[in-house]
Design brief:
mainly alpha; 81% helix
Length: 224
């Protein structure tokens, strides 16, 4: 139960943060031209090109006890590694491309005509975003959040490095499966793995429903 609770907590923190970052990054890349745009686009692909284990190791080298930052954190009794913050940081790193990568092609295809029309009619930037941009990307946004959440709950490599495998405290569901299996508790390992498989099936069903709904909406708009 502690592994299930921790998995939900980590996903519940990392997914909304990546949602905000993904929307902001996609909006900036698709709607504006600015210096550093190519760098930001490359940054989005970084988690896909780096092994999750290596990304977890980077956090260890950054926040470890023998580093300058680690000493500073210890002085103020702030725990990053082998605690929930480290799990959240590792999960956020491996999942932050999903929302942005779903939205960027969609926003680029839609162009900026609707936003320019809203601004010319007197709408502010936030009003344009909430009432024009957001409704146009809602299905792509839900799709990206769904994929982000699925990866967050199933992440193993990066989380394994920064967790410390403290039973009842830093073990998420994938880590709990490994521990139970190594202890020859095959029944317990199978039970937790079944829950993860169930989450995967739910994700696939929701993914299919979103794709069907989005296709239906596109067909309806073309008919009109």
């Amino acid at each position: 139960f502690s592994a299930i609770r921790l998995t939900l907590v980590v996903a519940g923190i990392s997914v909304p943060l990546n949602l905000a970052f993904g929307v902001a990054a996609a909006w900036a890349i698709a709607k504006f031209e600015f210096k550093g745009k190519a760098f930001l686009t490359t940054l989005l692909d970084l988690p896909f090109s780096v092994s999750p284990v290596i990304s977890g190791l980077v956090f260890v080298l950054l926040f470890g006890a023998n580093t300058w930052l680690g000493h500073w954190l210890s002085a103020y009794d702030i725990k990053i590694l082998f605690a929930v913050p480290g799990l959240v940081l590792a999960t956020m790193f491996v999942t932050f491309p999903f929302v942005a990568r779903e939205l960027i092609p969609l926003m680029q295809e839609q162009g900026t005509a609707d936003e320019e029309a809203a601004l010319s009619l007197g709408a502010s930037g936030w009003q344009t975003f909430w009432y024009v941009t957001l409704p146009n990307i809602k299905w792509g946004l839900l799709y990206g959040v769904l994929l982000c959440n699925a990866r967050a709950m199933g992440e193993f490599g990066a989380v394994s490095v920064v967790s410390g495998h403290i039973r009842g405290q830093t073990n998420t569901m994938p880590l709990q499966v490994e521990i139970l299996y190594n202890e020859y508790n095959f029944t317990g390992a199978f039970a937790v793995a079944t829950l993860l498989a169930l989450l995967a099936l739910v994700t696939l069903v929701l993914k299919t429903l979103l794709e069907m709904r989005y296709s239906a909406e596109i067909s309806a708009s073309r008919r009109h």
